[in-house]
Amino acid sequence: MTKTILRLDASARRENSVTRELSGAITERLGADRVIHRDLAQTPLPQLDEAWVGANFTPADQRDDAQKAALALSDSLIEELRAADVIVIGVPIYNFGAPAALKAWVDLVARAGVTFRYTDEGPKGLLDGKRAILAVASGGVGAGSEVDFASNYMRHVLGFIGVTDVDIVAADRMALDPEGTLNAARQQVADLAA
């Protein structure tokens, strides 16, 4: 059994959401002592602003109280990532890309010196040893295709912060064959190694 799962949902749909169904099924399939669930659509995260960027680029030991406060949510989100053994992310594909709610999360957790660092050989992720599973749904965009700017982006971002063990459960092409597509995705969940 997995110790801790971080489950992120980003679908604007509360009901009849394929990614929510799949992220829940994946979480249940893996089992965990602890599940941290963050609904990025129900409780949206703020967009980056000038105060956040200024605080982020100020050395930690030189930040004033306002700058520390500006980064507090980001610090909390990163602690959730650090605590997780497995990250399960519901990734609906909206207009070929990830929802803005998920992009806001990425912006808050991808921080130089905290979740990645620059080296002479290029960026190095600092969150090694974690597994991620993306529950991807789309109307007609094939997961992993050249026009899928959601799951490919998420795989890249996760690798950038050090999470390179990434699986995809795909319910793509829901507009073409909803029943067959969803059944195939449910089978992918059942086949996941716990």
Describe it for me?
There is one protein chain. 38% of the residues lie in helices and 23% in strands. Helix 1 (18-30) packs parallel to helix 6 (178-191) and helix 2 (50-56) crosses helix 3 (65-83). Helix 5 links the parallel strand 6 (131-137) and strand 7 (165-171). The protein is globular and about 55 Å long. The termini are close together. The strands form two sheets. It has a five-stranded parallel sheet with strand order 2-1-3-6-7, with helices on both faces. Strands 4-5 form a two-stranded antiparallel sheet. The chain has one domain: Rossmann fold (3-Layer(aba) Sandwich). The chain has six helices and seven strands, in the order βαβααβαβββαβα. The chain has 194 residues and is an alpha/beta fold. The longest helix has 19 residues, at 65-83. The model has no long low-confidence stretch (mean pLDDT 96).
Secondary-structure topology with pairs:
Elements (H helix, E strand, L loop, with lengths): L1 E8 L8 H13 L1 E8 L10 H7 L8 H19 L2 E7 L7 H10 L6 E4 L2 E4 L5 E7 L13 H10 L4 E7 L6 H14 L3
Parallel strand pairs: 1-2, 1-3, 3-6, 6-7
Antiparallel strand pairs: 4-5
Helix pairs in contact: 1-6, 2-3
CATH architecture descriptor: 3-Layer(aba) Sandwich
Instruction: Trace the largest sheet across and list its strands.
Output: 2-1-3-6-7
Per DSSP E runs of 2 or more residues, the count of β-strands stands at: 7
Structural shape: globular
For the largest beta-sheet, the strand count, sense and barrel status come to: 5 strands, parallel
Average pLDDT value? Answer: 96
| Percentage of β-strand residues | 15-25%
